[in-house]
Design brief:
With 799 residues, the chain is of the alpha+beta class. Helices cover 51% and strands 14% of the residues. It is elongated. Its main location: membrane.
Length: 799
């Protein structure tokens, strides 16, 4: 790549400015940094928190190890404290969880330390000029001219304003735009609700190392993280009383600061540490308003703003500096991509504007979202309303850690990185979005429509099972059979006792009276229909059990497969399965569901034995040629809890194995490390059984003149009058198949929208239709889950 005349002028040796300079240097692009201060890294009284989204870019730039070394103590523990400094919520293993999930910790150190690290990493230090405050910027058709306070003029291809909240470059950009297009800029679009004294204390009493403390109060709050050595950083944030706009936002003096300090002198940070203890040992402090904004326009012609000159956050979430680095990376990415297409380096104003526009488009929604999040968090910690006060006091103490860790995904994983530099190899459980095939997206309105579809299928099943049975006389025949203890043409009578518990025996007697005619029917289609149906259900029961024991589904609506099994045995799977699929659809509704940890099924090794003992063996016995009806009725009654027994056996086997291991002081038998082997075996076994029976039934129907494929798969008129109980038994196979098909298609689409698969819903539709015809619905579900499991297990290595 040749950039013979290409030069980027960067106004401001800030974190954004020096990050961009280092990125340009690594890509062989000429640059010049103009810094207003005499020193490149002055002690300006501020600290910075670095998070995974910023640290990953710094890692690409070769700065990460030094950042870790100089910050000394990653945040190990996060605490929320009340006005007396007492902890009411804490996150003890914060560093372990954030590093495991996203590959990087959270660290705090002086802002000047990061600036120094970036400066030291830049090789061409002669291109960083101090004491050169930018005064004017003028656009020309082929270049930009920058004049500094010293009277020097510098020429470049374009200028980037990284000169902070009171950006001179932004002001020049506004003035230029005002002359040419008055609608381009709205200078009043920044707001400020809060003001803050932030400072660094040293040598006196501080907080425990590796802790980050948030102190909740009414209309003010504290953020107090520990720093390296004997440093403690602190932020006292107060509500200014109303939201101010543009020029209304005040600038505070040292006298204003001292007045506010006096008001809060005796505030508690911890039960043994007061604000006065920190302030008395401060080495620097600044009192400033906290504007919040994402400007509508970050650029005009050959001028671009980044960092605080383009977007500003509340300090509470620490995203200001991290997003400044992200925007620098985005600009570098699009500049390098443009230069690859135009290797002369002679970019026109139109091409430069396109680079700027693309950068803002990529970054704007994310920065707005994070600005709003930081504002909402600040309102909460200042307990601005009676509702927020109630939530802070009575709800937050019981909020599980998973609520916070799930929010990290969009916060950190969706961040920008440098396209042209290799990604560091750091273990992380959750992939960054740019490691995926595409950024995750929401289901949208179609997701809500699916709830209606599943509900409609359940209503239809209910009508066919209960309403039709009443109309066609089936339930009258069932009552007669139970009252008369009749079993049709078979010898013997209907049993009334199985367990000795009258209420349970009554249910079992009713179910036996329904199943017995179907199994013993002289019409061959009916037993075959039942066998086909149960074999197709085998993979679904396996999947229901797996999902019930999957770690990420704990405490969700699908976490109790035994309860679902009881429900669809008592109310019909045609009615209950769509409701299960709707519940599963709800549980997986978030775009990040498939990305968060918890895919593992620790009890996986016990599910196949439980399926064999709890479902496969009882189902085989249903079709065993018993000589007497008493034994057959006992088998039918024993089969009824089979779907629920699978889950129960899994639980019992796991508990027994745990107990045995504990007794012998061995390792945990439920370790998720080897679950993939067992899960594959489950899908292969159940899928093979379902496929074999599907093929046997279909081929058998084609070669036999006595068995009708249509009568097996398509029921007759459900509301037509029936003469015998065998003729009235409702088969809900088609409804279960339809619901299963839609659910399977949704899961294929979910893998695609999560960025984990290249197979979209249209291709998935074709695969499912072919699978349902060739190997049957049960085997297709098993094959889908086999593939889905493999995709989820490989989610970190997709690129």
């Amino acid at each position: 790549m040749s950039q013979k005349d290409m030069k980027v002028i960067i106004a401001g040796g800030s974190i954004a400015g020096l990050s961009l300079a280092l990125m340009l240097e690594k890509n062989g692009i000429d640059f010049l940094v103009l810094e207003a201060y005499r020193d490149i890294a002055p002690q300006a009284g501020a600290s910075i928190g670095l998070l995974p989204n910023g640290l990953r870019i710094l890692d690409q730039l070769g700065c990460y190890e030094r950042v870790l070394a100089e910050s000394e103590y990653p945040v190990e523990k996060v605490t929320f404290r009340d006005s007396r400094g007492k902890i009411f919520w804490s996150f003890e293993d914060f560093n372990e969880r954030i590093s495991e999930r996203h590959g990087y910790p959270c660290v705090f150190f002086d802002r000047r330390m990061l600036i120094q690290i970036l400066y030291d990493k830049i090789q061409q230090k002669d291109k960083i000029l101090t004491s050169e405050k930018v005064v004017t910027v003028r656009n020309h058709p082929t270049h930009v001219a920058v004049t500094t306070q010293s009277g020097k003029e510098f020429m470049g291809t374009f200028v980037v304003g990284a000169d902070g909240i009171h950006s001179a470059v932004r002001q020049q950009m506004w003035e230029t735009a005002q002359k040419l297009d008055p609608t381009w800029i709205d200078p009043s679009e920044k707001d400020a609700t809060y003001a803050c004294i932030f400072g660094i204390s040293k040598g006196g009493p501080g907080v425990e190392k590796g802790t980050l403390n948030s102190v909740f109060n009414e209309h003010f709050s504290y953020l107090v993280p520990s720093g390296p050595g004997d440093r403690t950083y602190w932020f006292l944030v107060r509500n200014m009383g109303k939201t101010l706009h543009g020029s209304e936002i005040p600038r505070y003096t040292k006298e204003d600061e001292e007045k506010l300090v006096k008001e809060h002198w005796d505030d508690y940070i911890t039960p043994t540490l007061q604000f006065s203890d920190l302030y008395k040992h401060k080495i620097s402090s600044v009192y400033t308003a906290l504007p919040e904004y994402v400007y509508k326009k970050w650029y005009f012609q050959r001028i671009m703003t980044i960092g605080d000159a383009a977007h500003k956050f509340e300090p509470l979430t620490g995203q200001g500096g991290n997003n400044a680095i992200e925007t620098s990376a985005s600009l570098a990415n699009h500049l390098v991509a443009s230069l690859k297409k135009n290797d002369s380096g002679d970019l026109s104003t139109t091409e430069i504007t396109s680079i700027f526009e693309t950068t803002q488009r990529q970054r704007e929604d994310r920065t707005w979202s994070l600005v709003k999040q930081s504002h909402a968090r600040q309102r909460m910690e200042c307990m601005e309303t009676s509702v927020l006060k109630f939530v802070a006091r009575y709800i937050i103490p019981y909020v599980p850690k998973s609520v916070l860790t799930d929010r990290w995904v969009d916060t950190y994983a969706s961040g920008v990185s440098l396209n042209m530099l290799p990604a560091p190899e750091r273990d992380h459980a959750i992939p960054f979005y740019d490691e995926l095939l595409r950024a995750p997206s929401a289901r949208g309105p179609f997701g809500y429509l699916l709830y209606i579809v599943f509900a409609a299928l359940a209503v239809v099943a209910f009508q066919l099972l209960f309403a039709a049975g009443k109309v066609n006389g089936t339930w009258s025949l069932v009552r007669e059979a139970v009252i008369n203890r009749s079993i049709g043409d078979l010898s013997g009578s209907l049993r009334e006792s199985y367990t000795g518990v009258q209420s349970i025996d009554k249910i079992l007697t009713t179910l036996v009276s329904i199943f017995l005619p179907a199994i013993t029917s002289s019409h061959r289609e009916q037993p075959l229909q039942l066998l086909y149906f149960l074999s197709s259900m085998l993979p679904l029961i396996a999947i229901f059990t797996i999902e019930g024991y999957r770690q990420k589904n704990r405490w969700s609506m699908i976490a109790s497969p035994s309860i679902w099994g009881i429900l669809y045995q008592l109310r019909g799977i045609g009615f209950i399965a769509p409701l299960y699929f709707a519940a599963s659809h709800f549980v997986s509704r978030k775009s990040i569901f498939l990305l968060v940890p918890g895919r593992e099924v620790p009890a996986a090794k016990f599910i196949l034995p439980a399926l064999i003992l709890g479902f496969i063996v009882p189902t085989i016995l249903l079709f065993f040629p018993f000589k007497d009806t008493e034994s057959l009725q006992a088998v039918i009654a024993a089969w009824q809890p089979a779907p629920a027994l699978v889950s129960c056996f899994t639980y019992v086997f796991a508990k027994l194995a745990n107990a045995a291991v504990k007794k012998s002081n061995g390792c945990n038998p439920n370790s998720p490390g080897d679950d993939m082997f067992h899960l594959r075996a489950i899908y292969q076994t159940t899928g093979t059984i379902a496929a074999c029976i599907h093929l046997s039934v279909v081929i058998g129907c084609f070669i036999s003149n006595e068995i009708s494929l249509m009568q097996i798969f398509v029921p007759g008129d459900s509301f037509g009058r029936v003469e015998t109980l065998a003729g009235g038994v409702f088969n809900d196979f088609l409804l279960v198949t339809a619901a299963s098909f839609i659910w399977s298609l949704v899961n294929i689409a979910d893998l695609h929208r999560a960025g984990l698969s290249r197979v979209d819903w249209k291709a998935g539709l074709g695969y499912l239709m072919a699978g349902f015809v060739l190997i049957g619905p049960g085997a297709s579900a098993a094959a889908l889950w086999f593939w889905r499991e493999d995709v989820m297990s490989r989610r970190k290595a997709i690129k």
